[in-house]
Amino acid sequence: MAISRAAIIDENFIRAVKALPTPAHRADLDAPLREGSRLTGRIALELLESMFSSRHLDLTSRELKSRGQSFYTIGASGHECNATVAAATRHTDPAFLHYRAGAFFVQRARQLPGSTPLMDILLGMVASSDEPIAGGRHKVYGSVPLNVPPQTSTIASHLPKAVGAAFTIARRQRLESGERDDTIIVCTFGDASSNHSTACGAFNTATLADYQKLPCPILFVCEDNGLGISVRTPTGWVETRFRNNPGIKYFGCDGLDLIESYETAMAAAEYARSTRRPTFLHLRLVRLIGHAGSDVEQLYRTEAEITGTEALDPVLSNAAMLIEAGVITPAEVLELYEELRTRITALGEEAAGRPKIETAEEIIAPLAPIVPENIAAEVARPVDPAARAAFFPRLPEAERPRHMAMLLNRALGDLLVKHPELLLFGEDVGRKGGVYHVTADLQKRAGIGRVFNTPLDETAILGLAMGAGQMGMLPIPEIQYLAYLHNAVDQIRGEACSLQFFSQRQYRNPMVVRIASLAYQKGFGGHFHNTNAVASLRDIPGLIMACPSNGRDAVGMLRTCVAAAKVDGLVSAFLEPIALYMTKDLHEPRDAEWSFAYPELDFHVPVGKAKTWTQGEHLTILSYANGLWMSLRVAKRLEEDGIRCRVVDLRWLNPLPEDDIVAAAQATGKVLVVDECRKTGGVAEGVFTVLAERCPEVIMSRVTGLDTYIPLGAAANLVLVQEPDIEAAARAMVERS
């Protein structure tokens, strides 16, 4: 049988404490433990209890795992002094915690009477639906009362939104009261995670903010145990890298020493709070019991290394320090240690018997609930006429019909007027007004605090949006091109859209991500500016995907997405077809049939509702964006030959307008899907699935882009859907019996 390292460190602790002599004197519990220290014996005993609690949570999870009752064994053993960070901060300071935060979580809960951290953590370990934050969906540290938003296990992915939250504090303060808010953000992570590109981007963003004298009060806490599972972090690397990092103040200490950890954590938190600047707290720790229950340390560490690390056990060394200082006796240490073992073991047994998730409906319930009535009511909520008149030189509805880019500009202006908490940001969106001028003049009218530029880092942009949303703002980040999103898509997939899922909708990060999208740009492009790849977005649970084909719908759909973010906390990807930004005409030059008047203020497009542009009985054409525009042109030519098409704009790519798809298909019995995206992973796949499942009798075909990157210039037309392709496919469909 394999040796249980958990049992060994438990036995080592008991044996070592029993061997310690009882101190000859009792210390004054309210006196400093060391000269010049703020840590008293009374506070130290509280911290020691949190450390013991965290240790027994680890031991209990391993025991439950051996019986198949626990499903999560990544523990905090060796990291227990992170309780000092909780003691140095407030429960009102939002804390984005990584998975070794057991002692921190227990210690923070002491600040809020009535908290039940031990049971809450155990319920998460056994995946019970009674667990108060995630409801058994995953083991996370999370609590609304304690200001701990749940984080997934993705390496370093929570750092950008933590920076975003810190950056937003001052903006929220100006919006709410104008009074000074000395809240700071706490963000913990491991030494291995600090090397991840996502983390590096977050550090850079915080540094850049500080360089520009912008408040960014974040306390980065690197819990450095020297290992990333089995990969060693070079000795001294973290300190060497961060000690002289401009814009981030470095504090480092022996994280195994309770007194040094407490003093350093207090100093770091006070610095961040008083200066409003990014701060880096480096705790040098050890990792005990391996990475997780499935990790066999002997595969990459020698027995001598393992036992040497176990000899540094901070729970033992700090208990011994308090005994020597006369704060507590060995007998009292063991009594407390065993009392907590008994309590936590009993709680573990109780947790294991608590209910589990039993239905798929329970699992998906928190995902993106869409309440059409609430969205419609929010859109219809009136805007102050005087505020609109002051914002616009001329009211949008008084202007002539305009193209999509101009109508979106006016809609964004109206939204800035209506929602004081709305922020609009991204690369070039400020003074320049975006590369396509969609945000032109908005910074001048709304102010640099609400419309502003960001670094050229899509991860930072999306992180800022998430952090701002969690801090009560309504962010509309812009990603300059769809191809640029792919390097940061995990911020949407793994973080933004998972928050409501892992918090049972107790936390939310409402946001509408505007993305200049798709292909067909003339005289410009290539892969990074012309891309038709949407597959990475289509499989994200709960993400709304809006893709308008014209200016009027673009305004209505943008209003819908913003209202859905505000009332339901939803995340939307708003795909704006670049090639249609400036398009004014449809069939003939200067016919102005693709220019539209600014719609009435209560106009919106319900999520999942398509639009039928033409009625016809011979063939249904389903499309969106550029494909819709081309399909209407083709339909007119076909009508001249007596072929009447029903052309339908999907508008919403997720959720697809299934009922409208089925109704339109059954109206003609033949469907041509015109999908400008790639054949593999494109929108047509989803539409075909709907048709196959709900009306398999319908004859169907598709025209799609090719599975390739898009080249420069006219060569792009060789791989993108063209009007002759649509026309040929439509004629072939009509001829089919």
What's a quick, concise take on this entry?
With 737 residues, the protein is of the alpha/beta class.
Care to describe what's here?
It is a single chain. The chain has 737 residues and is α/β, with parallel strands linked by helices. The protein has 4 domains: 39-91 and 100-139 and 303-365, no CATH class; 154-285, Thiamin diphosphate (ThDP)-binding fold, Pyr/PP domains (Rossmann fold, 3-Layer(aba) Sandwich), CATH 3.40.50; 372-580, 3-Layer(aba) Sandwich (Rossmann fold); 611-735, Rossmann fold. The strands form 4 sheets. It has a 7-stranded mixed beta sheet with strand order 9-8-10-11-13-12-17, sandwiched between helices. Strands 1-2-3-7-6 form a 5-stranded parallel beta sheet. Strands 14-16-15-18-19 form a 5-stranded mixed beta sheet, with helices on both faces. Strand 2, helix 7 and strand 3 form a beta-alpha-beta unit. The termini are far apart.
Assembly state here? single chain
Q: Helices and strands: which structural class?
A: alpha/beta
CATH class of the largest domain: Alpha Beta
Shape: elongated
Largest beta sheet: strand ordering: 9-8-10-11-13-12-17
Q: How would a crystallographer describe the biggest sheet?
A: 7 strands, mixed
Give the CATH architecture of the largest domain.
3-Layer(aba) Sandwich
Q: How many beta-strand segments?
A: 19
The count of domains is: 4
